[in-house]
Every structure is written in C-alpha cells, then in structure tokens.
Design goal:
Helix content: 10-25%
Oligomer: single chain
Number of strands: 14
Strand content: 35-45%
Largest sheet: 6 strands, mixed
Strand order of the largest sheet: 1-2-3-4-5-6
Radius of gyration: 16 Å
Length: 209
C-alpha cells in the first residue's frame, strides 16, 4: 500500500521573547496502514495518537523547535516509543521549552527519513529558526515546510533566532528549485504550491519581512 498523508489541526499557544499567542498548527502524518511518521507534534498528543490509530510511529520529525511545534512531542514519544528528531542548530530553542530532555536524534541536511516505502529528504532551511528544516517527498509530490514557507510568503523573522535574508536565501535556493507542481504543506494555514509562490520572491524581498 502506498504512503498517504493525513492532516489534523491542533490548537494551543506559541511563546517566545516574553509574548504568548493563540495558534492553530498543522500536524502531518505520513505513512500507510502499518507505520507512519509525524511531522511536528503540536499541542495535543491524544489527538495525534488517535489519528495514528494502531500504526507504528517510526519518528516524530520536528521542522524546528518553537514550542508550538514540539509541545506534544515528548508525551507522544513516551506513549509510542518513537524518537524525536531535530536539527542540531535548534537545540538552543528546544532547551527553552525542555531544558531537561534532549531530542532523541539529530536531523542533518540531505538525510533521508523513510516510511512506508516513501523517502523524505531533509532540507536545512534556516531563517525562521537556525535549525529549521523542510521535508521533501518527491514520490508524494509534496514538501513539508514547517514555518519556512507559507501561502503568501516566508515565515516570520521578527523574533529571536530568526533572520529575514537567511530565510529568503533558504526559500530561493532550496525550495523554489523544486518542481513547480510540488504541493507545499505548511506549519499553519492552507497549503500552496511551489509554482504559486515562486513568482513572488522579489515582492517578498522588497517588503523586507
């Protein structure tokens, strides 16, 4: 059976630099009827576990370590035995939320995460966070971008650990080079495609945020 993508939206808060905001997060589950990975275990371990059903969880992949993308990860890992994977450059952010509990494994650029006969390649795309990554699954015609690229532009770069020129470079060099029909499945909000976003790069740069 081919891998499929399941989607749920969970709600909670995002906190950084002394502020807290209500947010809805996309949680993506990639797999078949036997095994799966979770991309960004946000807010609600019970809801994510219910969506997994009886499937074996191979890994919990964190696109970055802002608390709204990892706040259900340790509980889900404890429940399933699955490792939490994070790029090493995001450890300072991770430690703001979990000073006593490290991730279980490190994501590196070019690494391949395999599940249900599908390969997802890790693309290091810093800017929104130093260790932000996207996961490109050519066999599924999709890329999971976390908070790096949204419908309408780059992720936010106005807070600690972020940088606008860096995120623009990541999007230009690592994402807009993907096939235009590639579906962009984001950390928040609606999906888009590479082809829909690529023509707007110069506008984003002119906006400068």
């Amino acid at each position: 059976m081919a891998a499929r993508i399941d989607h749920l939206v969970t709600s909670g808060t995002f906190s950084l630099d002394g502020g807290t905001w209500d947010v809805d997060n996309n949680v993506w589950i990639v797999g078949d009827d036997t095994e799966a990975i979770v991309v960004d275990a946000a807010h609600d371990a019970d809801a994510i576990a219910a969506a997994l059903g009886g499937r074996r969880l191979v890994a919990i992949v964190s696109t970055h370590a802002h608390n709204d993308h990892i706040d259900a990860a340790p509980a889900l890992a404890a429940r399933t035995g699955a490792p939490i994977l994070l790029h090493g450059d995001d450890l300072p952010l991770w430690k703001q939320t979990y000073p006593e509990r490290a991730p279980d494994g490190e994501l590196t650029d070019g690494q391949v995460v395999a599940v249900a006969g599908t390969e997802l390649t890790v693309l290091h795309t810093p800017g929104h966070a130093p260790g932000a990554v996207c996961l490109y699954a050519p066999g599924l015609g999709t890329v999971f971008t976390g908070d790096t690229l949204f419908q309408g532009g780059p992720g936010a770069t106005g807070r600690s650990f972020s940088d606008f020129p860096t995120i623009v470079g990541s999007i230009r060099d690592r994402l807009l080079t993907l096939p235009p029909e590639t579906v962009v499945r984001t950390g928040h909000g609606d999906s888009t495609t590479i082809g829909a976003e690529a023509p707007h790069l110069d506008e984003w740069i002119a906006r400068g945020h």
